[in-house]
């Protein structure tokens, strides 16, 4: 199960609401990450977003 936490203080300082801040994803990259890894994450994320948008909203 996902842990519900408060949004980052940085996101709050940028003016994002708690709801907007809760809908963010943070990626950290280092010198050892390859372009192939970044491409794989982007491709996977795009597929997940497409799947999530096609599902009915939960209220």
Describe this structure as you would to a colleague:
The protein has one domain. The two termini are 18 Å apart. The longest helix is centred in the last third of the chain and has 20 residues. It has 59 residues and is mostly helical. It is 51% helix and 0% strand.
What is this structure, in a nutshell?
The protein has 59 residues and is mainly alpha-helical.
Task: Describe the protein's topology.
Elements: H1 9-13, H2 18-22, H3 35-54
Overall number of domains = 1
Helix content: 40-55%
- Separate helix tally: 3
Q: What is the CA–CA distance across the termini? A: 18 Å
Main sheet characteristics: none
The overall pLDDT average reads 89
Sequence of secondary-structure elements:
HHH
Spans of 5+ residues with little confidence (pLDDT < 50)?
none
Helix/strand-derived category reads mainly alpha
Query: What shape does the CA trace take?
Result: flat
Number of separate strands: 0
- β-sheet strand percentage: under 5%
Radius of gyration: 15 Å
């Amino acid at each position: 199960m996902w842990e519900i936490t408060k949004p980052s203080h940085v996101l709050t300082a940028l003016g994002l609401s708690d709801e907007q801040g809760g809908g963010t994803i943070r990626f950290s990259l280092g010198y050892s990450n390859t372009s192939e890894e970044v491409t794989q994450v982007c491709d996977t994320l795009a597929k997940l977003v497409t799947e999530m948008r096609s599902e009915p909203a939960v209220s």
